[in-house]
Write a structure and sequence with these properties.
Blueprint lengths: L3 H69 L2 H21 L1 H17 L5 H5 L1
Helix pairs in contact: 1-2
C-alpha cells in the first residue's frame, strides 16, 4: 500500500516533468522564431542590396557605354562591347556559383541554426 505522502511526491514529480517538457518546447519555439527572423532579415538585406546595386550598376553601365561610344565613335559597338563584358561576367558567375553562393549560404545558415557549443561560454 502506498501512503498519501508517496502519491503526493509522485504527482509533484509528474507535474515537474510536465513543466520541464513545456519549458523545453517553449525554448525551441523561441529559438525557431529567432532563427527565422534572422534568416528573413538577412534575405531582405540581400534582396535590397541586389536591387539597389543593380540600379547603380545599370546607371554606371549606361554612362560607361556612352563614354565608350564617344571614344570609339560608334554607340552600336559600345553597346556590343558592354554586352560582351556582361556575358563574360555572367559565365564567370555561373561557373563559380557553388563557391560564391551555395557554400557561403550553408555556412551562414549553419552558424545561425547550430552555433558553436563554446560560443555561449565565451560571452559570459
Amino acid at each position: 500500500m502506498e501512503n498519501p505522502q508517496e502519491k503526493d511526491n509522485v504527482r509533484r514529480i509528474a507535474d515537474d516533468v510536465a513543466s520541464y517538457v513545456n519549458l523545453k518546447i517553449d525554448a525551441l519555439k523561441l529559438d525557431t522564431v529567432e532563427n527565422l527572423s534572422v534568416a528573413f532579415s538577412n534575405a531582405f538585406g540581400v534582396v535590397m542590396f541586389i536591387i539597389l546595386g543593380g540600379m547603380g550598376l545599370l546607371f554606371f553601365t549606361g554612362v560607361l557605354t556612352y563614354l565608350l561610344g564617344l571614344l570609339i565613335g560608334s554607340m552600336i559597338w559600345a553597346v556590343v562591347i558592354m554586352g560582351a563584358i556582361f556575358s563574360i561576367a555572367a559565365v564567370v558567375v555561373l561557373v563559380n556559383r557553388q563557391k560564391m553562393f551555395a557554400d557561403s549560404m550553408v555556412r551562414m545558415f549553419g552558424r545561425m541554426f547550430f552555433p558553436p557549443k563554446d560560443q555561449g561560454h565565451a560571452q559570459q
